[in-house]
Amino acid sequence: MTRGDFTSGFLVLELERDRAERFLNGVRVVLLVALAVAAAVYAPSLSPALNRMNLVVLSLTIGWAAVQVPLFYRQERLPNWLRYANPAADVGAVTAIIVAYGVTATPALALKTPIVDAYFLILAALPVASSTRKAAVVSVMAVLAYASVVVGFWTGGRLSVILDPVLASGATAVSPLDEGAKILLLASVGAVATYATRWQERLAVRYAEAADHGAELKARLARTELHALKLQLQPHFLFNTLNTITALVHQDATRAERMVSGLSDLLRASLNSAGEEEVTLVRELAVLTHYVEIQQVRFGDRLRFAVDVPSELQGAMVPNLMLQPLVENAIRHGIASRASGGQVLVSAVRDGEWLRLRVLDDGVGEAPGRVRREGVGLGNTRARLEQMYGSRHRIEAVGDAQGFRVQIDIPFQLSTATPAR
């Protein structure tokens, strides 16, 4: 597990805990209001001192829960200390009410009141919004608070004790066995809450680790597929060029020699960028020019080639070896079969955040209604663009009686080594 996995896993967990803390505070307000209503209903049967204590404790806790909304809830993240303060305030409020019952009534009644169960409710909420440390601290706090109340009542001499739990349940006394069981149960619930919190943290980190590993595998697969697509292209134009040279050897040795020289320049230029997925447009055009020069040896004046690329776009990044197969298609299918030949134009323009590339020929074009079968060049280009840019690209291939056009839109990005003009 890397430090990045650890950090990303905890970041997600902390965001969820922040949402949970906000939700729990809303639950806290609802429960406190319900307790306040119950206290008001039972007020006539309670002593004035106990009513005053209920009023003070409930007013303070409701006020604290309510004031958090304007103070902290507009922030993107709640203060970290608030996650300690809220459960600490809850434990303090429950303890204060129990002590108030013990002082104004009897300690036995205080220890038997249902408000003691609120300790367990506080501990049960810990895994939702707590860190492991916070869960441990609050658990220890709750156990010590209740144990201190029991010991305080007993050492004060006002707590009647009966060993038999059955007899103690019907008398104004408590059993040490019952109180010990409560403390042990509180400690057990706190330990389980702390373990559950730790388990959540480990699960979040492992999930982040698995997600990062999956993303890395996906990226490796994409790089492998791109490399395989490039390997399809390189032999494709190489074999076609060698076939052309073979045909010329016995017909025109001089032209064949020029093609071999041009092929050498082409291979040298393409090998210099073989390990790069993207190159600058000026480098892509340099490789393309070597290829076209080879074809012009073969076709002579029948093949005319032009480039229309503004100087400010020459540093734009494009997929390596993308234009060559498109130009090759234009020559093979548009120019070669036409007696008068034709022109191939490569152009580039910037359209906002897009770089628009066009390969246009005025050759034989495409008959209306004809079902097009994409070869290696165009099909490979589509696949590479999909792998490299996903949905952030557009490719359009249109043919008619006047020729054929391939237009590609990719995100505009200048090479970091080339300053924008």
**What is the structural class?**
alpha+beta
Secondary-structure element series: HHHHHHHHHHEHEEHEEHEE
The chain-level mean pLDDT equals 83
Strand arrangement across the biggest beta sheet: 2-4-5-7-6
The fraction of residues in strands falls at 5-15%
| Main pleated-sheet profile | 5 strands, mixed
Rounded to an integer in angstroms, the radius of gyration calculated over CA atoms is 40 Å
Helix content: 55-70%
Global outline: rod-shaped
Amino-to-carboxy terminus distance: 45 Å
Count of the domains = 2
Low-confidence stretches: 1-6
Total number of helical segments?
13
Beta strands, count: 7
Description:
Helices cover 65% and strands 11% of the residues. The chain has 421 residues and is of the alpha+beta class. A hairpin with a 2-residue loop joins strand 4 and strand 5.
